[in-house]
# Entry
Amino acid sequence: MPEIIPTLAVALVFLTAFSLLLFENWRLSIGALALQYTGAFLLVAQSWPMQIAVVKLVAGWMSVAVFGMALIDHFQETEQETILNLPGRLFRTLVAILVGLVIISLLPDILNWFLGATLRQGLGGAFLLGLGLLHLGLSTSPGRVIIGLLTVISGFEVVYAAVETSILLTSLLAVVNLGIAFVGAYLLSLSSLDIAEEIGE
Amino acid sequence: MNAILIWIFFPMGIAGLLFLFQSQRRLITLIGFGVALLLAGLAWVFPVGRVTRLFSWVFEITGQFSVYGRQIILTPADSPVITLLYLIVAFWFLGSLATEVPAHFVPLGLASVGIIITGISIEPFFYAAILFEFVALIFVLLLSIPGHPPSEGVLRFLIFQTLGMLFILFAGWSLSRIDINAPDAALLARTLVIMGLGFSFLLGIFPFLTWFPMLAHRNNIYLTAFMFNIFLNGVILFGLDFLNQYAWVSTYFDLREVLQVVGVFMIGTGGLMAVFQNNLGRTLGYAMIAEVGRSLLSISLGADGLAIYFALLIFQVWALGLWSLSLDTLSARTQNLDFRAVTGLARELPFPIAGILLVHFSLAGLPLLGAFPLYWYLGNQLVEQASLGPAVWLLLGGIGLAIEGTRTLHAFIIPSEEAAELATLKNFSIILLILGGSALILFGLFPQYLIQIGNKMALAF
# Structure
């Protein structure tokens, strides 16, 4: 793999995680999440054979598809979308920069903890973990929480791929991704489901 | 025959089938109840690994199953635990007939127990973290009732469980790098801290405990209590499995002291915060935090403590069942579990009110009630092992719950300004409430049977 690709992948995951944090437009969110999985795949492919690494990409895109469909339905039904104001965006930008700086300063430790991870894997994974956690800390709506969780898991998978190559673990983590996306889709559709149907009386 | 097929795949298959027939809620509840009882009975009569004769048929139930090179292993010592887990789930299924829980409760409940049993028997142990994430996802589905937006408690529960999974996965890999004969002290310490953080997220250990009261306040109280009971004890069994497999760790670090400090924090937080609650659901949440603390204190005592833990678990099943059934009955009539909404209801709804108070004071450790002899035994063991501080906190936690119990009693008996028209209770609910209440009193009178069962369960670890 050419040397430039992992570097571009790090830039891609940072930009997508940052845009997910900053913009709450659902079209942009779905697109950014799909691109984020592409970046994570490119980073994982540094440690794993392509045919196993591609599992991450396929499972990620499937998760995006499942969750994205629910997001589209949700916003078409409710017709409401929270739009962050300028101070809100500025605040998130500053905090994201702060998180980025902390990650860069902690990078030697991260590489020491995840022995075998390359510099770019460590940086990309840690960006996803940090910005994902920040996303979780700043969000209360189900859709945003699910996006935050998917981001955090992607980040973990990038650095974990460097140390663990078990096929069973890969497939289980892929199922976890899909499971979270399914649960997210269910949570988004909750208010439109009829309670009487579920009680079954 | 293979034990994994019987106690894991069979119930999950049945769960899948029952999921398709949700329009027949009562029927699938009874089938689920029957299947859970059958599996509990099978685990009791035909232990794993023992050659058994049934009429002229001689057979052995083997306990190993391989998936991609990883093993799911059930041993003869696991049979009592499997029996207990299926009995617990059968108990909750029966109680659900007196409530208005959604139809998917039984299939999801059955599937979750199957996954929990897989979790406590899989090797390497850290794969269980992912399985418990699946169980958490199941409980998120279960607790999110159609027609209502998901509560913040559910979302926080999901976040913490996912973070816990990641921490345990990383710690599990890190632990595999450590040489048992000459461990690197710094690496071992760091790994144990990460593992501890993982379990703290899963068990809602201080400061990650905010989801307890949030869930109990905003979600269906019966489902929440079921989740507390099954999920938290499943995680504790997973933790015991870890301590069992990595017993050598205790030669380098005093895990007993760590468990006691954490247990004291939980009992202190649960007991003291309960005093300030004005909602019966939130009180249950805080009481559960104290329960986790008591479980950790028991486990810190070693073999004797394990017997106390299992005895407390059996008591907890009845207590949570009775408490949540009473609260569910109440909230179905008042739509709200705030003190303001339940003022003066002691005359209108004596059975659920008596149930709530009985459990409340039992969990507080009032003499002659169910938990008192177990707390007494636990306290004695702590004092004998020179752990006076935790024993005092055990008492203080109980006092906190007793004060909140007195406030609850006051709210129930003061006359209400508005005379409310409340629907009468079903006979089935009354029977369950009377049976549950009687059992709590009997546990207090004959605690030796609980300890005997606890001793048998403790052999698994």
